[in-house]
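2024-03-11 09:14:02 DEBUG pipeline.ingest accepted 1 chain
2024-03-11 09:14:02 DEBUG pipeline.ingest length=189
2024-03-11 09:14:03 DEBUG pipeline.predict start
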Amino acid sequence: MPMTEVVWHGRGGQGAKTAGYILAEAAMEEGAHIQAFPEYGAERRGAPMKSYVRISDAPIRLRCAVTQPKVVVVLDPSLLGGVNVTEGLAKDGALIVNTGQSPAEVREQLGTKDFRIYTVDATRIALETIKRPIPNTPMLGALAKTTDLLTTAGAIRAVRKKFEHKLAPTVVEGNVQAIQRAYEEVQGE
């Protein structure tokens, strides 16, 4: 696989950094070379932040921010109005947004005909499965459905590995359910 770059946009506390690390771990388990790192402004809950992931079949020598992603994942739909989340996104790339809106509504809001757009209400799924408004694991399910970067089985294995020693078993299983539900519920155009 040629190198694929992913940018996660979120707010502090939504799990963008963790989701990037989980994506990278899942890809590494499949034999890929990876990089994953966050970019913070003011380190506080609720502040806009980014997380970057690179996945490749060859060693990765770059040591800079991702500027031309193939995939952009947006954890907080309020960022669509205040941050240029599509900056550098490849015309044949994918934008995956946590929102109750349809892909057509997001496309109209952004005023673009470029790239594929997918939407899933990840916050609702998270509230129903893990009882907290943290949309990162549902967005991994949406990412698995809409790209070839990971499978749902790979995402689930990585989530279990990451969380099994930190969280209660019911919370881990809630995250697994969130991945599966988002995989089924994501919409695209």
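2024-03-11 09:14:41 DEBUG pipeline.report The first strand starts at residue 4 and ends at 11.
2024-03-11 09:14:41 DEBUG pipeline.predict end
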